[in-house]
Design brief:
single chain; alpha/beta; Rossmann fold; seven-stranded mixed sheet; 9 strands; 17% strand; binds S-adenosylmethionine
Length: 284
Amino acid sequence: MLVSINMTLETIPKKKDCSISVKENRGSNMYQLGKKIFDKIPILRPMLIKGQQNFRPKFSGIGMTSFHTLPDEQFFKKIMSELHKFSTNENQYCYSDKMMDENYWKFYFVAFASSYAVKSTGLSSLVECGVANGYSAFVALKSVKNSEMHLYDAWNVMKDDLISESEKAIRGYYKTLDINFTKYNLKEFGSTRWHQGYIPETLDNSSPKLISYLHIDLNSSIPTFEALTFFYPKILNGGVILFDDYGLNDYAETKQVIDQFLINKNGTMFKLPTGQAMFFVLKP
Ligand SMILES: C[S@@+](CC[C@H](N)C(=O)[O-])C[C@H]1O[C@@H](n2cnc3c(N)ncnc32)[C@H](O)[C@@H]1O
């Protein structure tokens, strides 16, 4: 049956003017002024008046500001305090205290991805490609009790033939890394397996046969592609691949190779405001 709709534009209810009710609740002129500064000059947000909880962000860093309760604060308070105590070589690439705190949300996604992957596959077999001092590996190992983790890194200067022209700026960053410091930082975990050398050379028979979680943080597109190609067949249905550099402006080529690789793979890509992305793997 055809039902005619007798509504003209005049009879459609108007959208409520929400700005009026918001303004009514906004309170004092001081608040209005603060809000104006807050809206117009985001860079000042972290500095806004102490004690004015309305203005003080709970998190500010890596291009994000948030006023909401941080996730799993109890768990991460402890983790962050341990990460702050990590040992590193003099002049070695490492995070300053400020950088460490700014990575809170990145670490949260590492914890989420690793624990979700293990729960959904029933297998506690983790891989990280790009370990450096071991920050993100530490978070994953703390999040998944009794897991085995294979760690891949050159702990050395990046190789010219493994970085593209647009990635050359980062080449020397890691030349002072020392695997012994990373081993020391992760010493409480008995189940770490160390693969020192350049990817793809280290992707061989000593790698795990089946895995649930793969974290790729290599800041370079060629080894990212090689690691993905090598480990993808080993990831179980329900496993997760976490990409650290997916949305970062400086690593457009990494995003390209990932998108190209995943184009015909079954699963769901979850792109995160930190620049990371999580791929939830679906296999028959
Ligand atoms: C951004 S850092 C990793 C940071 C680490 N996930 C953390 O939480 O501290 C990138 C790492 O990738 C490593 N890397 C880059 N290209 C590599 C390659 N072809 N083979 C092995 N390691 C590589 C570097 O040595 C460096 O330690």
